[in-house]
Amino acid sequence: MKWRKATNKLILHHSASNKTTPISNIIAWHVKEGLAQVDDQHKIHSAYHYFILSDGTIVPDLPEMSVGWHSGDWQTNLTSIGVCVLGNFSVDAVEVHEQEAIEYLLTNLTRKFGLKYWQIYAHRNVRKFFNLLGTKTECPGENLYRRLPDIRRAVGIDLGQLKDNDPVTIREKPHAFEKPFNLFTTIINFIKHIKIGFRIGK
Hints:
The protein is of the alpha/beta class. The protein is 35% helix and 12% strand. It has a single domain (9-195), classed as Peptidoglycan recognition protein-like (Lysozyme-like). It has a five-stranded mixed sheet with strand order 5-4-6-1-7, covered by helices on one side. Helix 1 crosses helix 7 (183-201) and helix 3 (96-112) crosses helix 6. The chain is globular, with a radius of gyration of 16 Å.
């Protein structure tokens, strides 16, 4: 398990599954795909640091300061936290209590790591490596993606970074990434995660 040295992005995902999908199923999918990780107590984790259930419950999974293979871009993984909301928001509606849970968690994480509201991103905006391969993702689903300005606004206002009438967009500061994309490094680390997945599956 690799540990982050810095945190400067919060990445919002959806599970692209039924809202009642058990977290254990998602972990099993990540084992199969080579994305899961094992901690010092031999517990298997998904690629996400937090899950938000359909009732608004927030469930921690991957240790908060560990690196998760959740964004599809290794440089982003090294400095980000992945938050997954259960559901397929390409078709599912975002309920009020789900959005409130998202805003609550992201506000706390933004405050904890000294971030700005615009450092909250949708998965589809950071998957640079796989975008180059032509396998773009809809994650976190169009219905949740359209809520991103409202989510950023709620976080910004709560932290005193925004006023009520300040404009907020989905891509307020697009691709504010500190390190250039490195294809070689990304491929090497992707292979490492595949090997980890094979080892977990044995």
